[in-house]
Write a sequence for this structure.
């Protein structure tokens, strides 16, 4: 859009510039809305109830923050330019990259789902290393934020992966910021805090491994299904908005059971296991193949080919099969 409408917005650089009363500003900050981005991506009803203001007021504040960040009407040319800005991170396997349309994309949330041991965590650690590579080598020259909900992140593994690329392992490990989430609420709080961290720490990849574990444990059974799914959907939307606003890649994992009949009635398994059903993004199903082979399949992605890619988990990380 033209520059005319932007003159006023240029002056809005933080939530302090939104023209709010000091009391309201204080309430917002106390509720965790500390940046323009966090306000811009807020759920309006939630913001209204947490801060204790009427919904229309919340709506106005959120709109103003969105406008200030340029999240409004766009021309097709602007859309094209944004598309050109999309970054891709290599997985370490060319075939898997091709399946993903060139690698894991920024502005998108990518879900890897599959049974235990299918390589979800290995892929997340590999991507946390690979995001640091320069663009010409398949990275984004940025850092990773790894939210670990199961305590399965291994720095030793990252060290080996880094060495195999001839990178300084200590530097690579320094560029992965790790946070352990001990409950679903904690997990969501970390994501909230991440919004300040992402631009400041030059984060280009946000991992949540696994995104579903705590939710499943805390809301077990069919009777809790609706609440669990609602909470999880809110979390996933938050994540996909973060991907969009900061132009970073968001990768989440989701363990699914081998026997969906045990979880009869659970829509997350009923639709094939993925949880992104109601959030935009790319879903990749992982299966085990012979020995260390793994098979990846794209699910419900009209823009990607309906095909499969085989890769292997080697001592050094995710790789193609050499034939
Ligand atoms: P859950 O979190 O339990 O759902 O599993 P996951 O999908 O995250 O599996 P994960 O990524 O932890 O993959 C584990 C598999 O990776 C193992 O079964 C091994 O096949 C492989 N793997 C892990 N570490 C190594 C390693 O150091 N060398 C080799 N060659 N393979 C490894
Ligand atoms: Mg795992």
């Amino acid at each position: 859009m033209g520059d005319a409408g932007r003159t006023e917005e240029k002056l809005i650089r933080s939530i302090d510039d939104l023209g709010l009363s000091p009391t309201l500003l204080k309430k917002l900050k106390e509720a965790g809305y500390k940046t323009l981005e966090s306000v811009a991506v807020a759920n309006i009803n939630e913001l209204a109830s947490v801060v204790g203001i009427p919904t229309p007021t919340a709506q106005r504040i959120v709109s103003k923050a969105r406008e200030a960040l340029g999240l409004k009407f766009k021309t097709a040319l602007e859309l094209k330019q944004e598309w050109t800005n999309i970054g891709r991170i290599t997985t370490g396997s060319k075939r898997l990259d091709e399946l993903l349309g060139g690698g894991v994309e920024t502005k998108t949330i990518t879900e890897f789902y599959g049974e235990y041991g299918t390589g979800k965590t290995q892929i997340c650690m590999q991507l946390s290393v690979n995001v640091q590579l320069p663009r010409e080598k398949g990275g984004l020259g940025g850092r990773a934020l790894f939210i670990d909900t199961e305590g399965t992140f291994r720095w030793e593994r990252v060290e080996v992966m880094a060495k195999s690329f001839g990178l300084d392992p200590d530097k690579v490990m320094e560029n992965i910021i790790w946070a352990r989430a001990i409950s679903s609420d904690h997990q969501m709080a970390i994501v909230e805090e991440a919004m300040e961290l992402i631009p400041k720490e030059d984060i280009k990849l946000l991992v949540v491994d696994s995104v579903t574990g705590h939710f499943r444990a805390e809301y077990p059974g069919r009777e809790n299904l609706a609440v669990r799914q609602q909470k999880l959907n809110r979390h996933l939307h938050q994540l996909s908005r973060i991907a969009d606003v900061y132009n970073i890649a968001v990768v989440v994992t989701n363990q699914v059971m081998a026997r969906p009949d045990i979880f009869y009635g659970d829509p997350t398994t009923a639709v094939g296991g993925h949880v992104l059903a109601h959030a935009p993004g790319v879903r990749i199903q992982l299966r085990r193949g012979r020995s260390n082979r793994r098979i990846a399949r794209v699910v419900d992605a009209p823009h990607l080919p309906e095909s499969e890619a085989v890769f292997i988990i080697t001592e050094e990380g995710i790789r193609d099969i050499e034939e």
Notes: The CA atoms of residues 95 and 309 lie 6 Å apart. The longest strand covers residues 203-209. Confidence is low (pLDDT under 50) at residues 1-10, 265-272.
